[in-house]
């Protein structure tokens, strides 16, 4: 595969100012502002495959959607804090920084003093931008910990299901080892004869690693597979989930049925006696329970290849042939993270692990079980993982938390109980939400429901560079700088370099750093000195680097330059070291001396601990459970198409959606939806048409792209188009939003993967599609929201500090909207 790098412009003139170094979640680069205000972007010279996402930065930096100055929702300014359905529907009023910071500080203090610090939700999930010091979540968590504490969030949207499930199956260290990949890419290229890739190895994803990556090596490793003799079984509804040019077979499986296919493969291994009984006896526990389920002794149904074929839409003989080939080859079973981002997402991960255990190759080079090859750039990278400098956050004095994907449940159902990893927990009553560095109106499911949830708190504060949908649903928006507007240093897990991030341009508008904003708030709240420790950002960089340098020099004996030298050089190439990936090799050799951290010390093919919880949605061994959103579901009668909402190829999530590379992919100004020509033909849809995609939760408008590269009945609408709810959407209160731009989370369901893990389930949704007749309403989200001049708007008479906003029964300010207390649909 060759990387496309549409970002480097021919540069004939001699440079006015030099390019300065920086990095991003999608790679290191250098940048120089041009006389005409544009940016010249050059990938890092050591990067063999720069990311196409670099092409988004130039167009986005000074886009009209940058938040120019602090802004307050008009109703909040006039009436003070309180629940309101007007969020996301009212104009904003521009105020000065001092007034905005006074309002936020007073409201934080009011909520803490009246309700306790746990009434502040500071989970603030999101990717923010690269940079170790100006990391928005670290800054916010440090601030809120010193403020008195906050309700936190746990796990991630990426891996919410696996992070809770896998420790039960392989222990904590085993989970780390599985997620960093069974074998390195070069080991796969050398040893693996067959990769059975559930969800494929989507090359579009491998440019991204949290914190950054200097050398993108995975695209090269993928290209090497073309000449290594490795065969790849691409199991995915999308052909694009594997690069062209590899020796592969495409199994266009029915979405959400991978578990059934895995069970059919496992049944074939069992009945044809192709499983490794010795490995199962030595290294696993609970195989016999699983075998009784496979052969039908448990429930009367054998999970045969014929049974599986019926569910996953594949020929039974093909399934049997694949099972035999797996047993005869050095085989890697790998499962992308997307497969656990659906209801019952535990099952494909657990069944994949069980299947690999039956092959008996876990711990052998190039064999066994992998999770996330192609999901993230650093999976399969076995370089040393060095601790990089980081901002100390301090302990949170409040121990309240939620699994991150339960945000809407928490806001809508305070005091209600829920289960999580065997615990019975209660949702706290949140009065203030403080978000920095994430976009829940991109990342959460069922955005109509999230709007109802965001109507509940007294106050929502958002730090954002752009007028994202989250900013538009806030009460107080504080404009923040992006990486190019401040000094920092950055690098990703397993990165080869620490990159100095020089300031390339002045802050846009009145934007301030998150650090600066929080320092000002801390000063107003009486802990300014404690928060800043008297340091400017530059002094922090010197301090954090200095501590780290000492530690690294001690640990590696490497010659680590002083800060000035590092800063002037623009980077420091990190010392290399031995790889630390021997856990499963050691375990395989001697499971008694190297037990996994599970109750049995072995791989748990059945888990007595999970079985004891008695959860119907996650029993004690891998099972086929029908999700609500799959083509075989009852709901498919009305909404027969299965929408895949996967990661976008043209941006990172919702970041820089207005950037040039992302914009170039839009169709009719909207997010492209790929559909099969047969599905288009019966609906009269042609390439380039605006289509309306809908279900009972919402509707979106998207631009049609016809493709034979997906299974009929499947649509692909990637995540990240900025949510743009039509003003008079649905029944008028946004319960059923119409997103004019094509954000798939207007359609997805806000249900957990299971009561064990509470992971998010955004990857799939059942929908119907039709051609949009007439002229489609234009996208509005690429303009800022209506802004009013602060001088003309009266402030709440009592001032927010004394406002009675804590009373849930007090009148909703937006009279035209239905009352808040209408019953919630779960
Ligand atoms: N339907 C569906 N939904 C999904 C998924 C799916 O598969 N399907 N995938 C999920 C996954 S895996 C993830 S990780 C999430 C991602 O969800 P998020 O991480 O929330 O998405 P981002 O768009 O990266 O949001 C980061 C935000 O931070 C802002 N930002 C950047 N730099 C700074 C800064 O320095 N300071 C501040 N204050 N803000 C900054 C950006 O402008 C942006 O709005 O989405 C999830 N949502
Ligand atoms: N360009 C780019 N790269 C990214 C990101 C980004 O936003 N943009 N985000 C990063 C983040 S935060 C994360 S967590 C990772 C996520 O990594 P993943 O979760 O692995 O990525 P996705 O693209 O959501 O899904 C991978 C593929 O799974 C396939 N798939 C979906 N449903 C099914 C199914 O039921 N069965 C089978 N067999 N296949 C299915 C889809 O066709 C999809 O292309 O990506 C990272 N990389
Ligand atoms: Mo993610």
UniProtKB/TrEMBL annotation:
Organism: Streptomyces himalayensis subsp. aureolus
Presence of keyword Oxidoreductase: yes
Name this protein carries in UniProt: Molybdopterin-dependent oxidoreductase
One GO BP annotation of this record: anaerobic respiration
Taxon lineage: Bacteria, Bacillati, Actinomycetota, Actinomycetes, Kitasatosporales
Record's keyword terms, sorted: Metal-binding, Molybdenum, Oxidoreductase, Periplasm
Compositional bias per record (Basic and acidic residues), positions renumbered to this chain: 806-826
InterPro entries assigned: Asp_de-COase-like_dom_sf, CT_DMSOR/BSOR/TMAOR, Molybdopterin_N, MoPterin_dinucl-bd_dom, Mopterin_OxRdtase, Mopterin_OxRdtase_prok_CS, Prok_Mopterin_Oxidored
Gene3D superfamilies in the cross-refs: 2.40.40.20, 3.40.50.740, Dimethylsulfoxide Reductase, domain 2, Dimethylsulfoxide Reductase, domain 3
Similarity comment: Belongs to the prokaryotic molybdopterin-containing oxidoreductase family.
Domain (Molybdopterin oxidoreductase): residue spans on this chain: 66-523
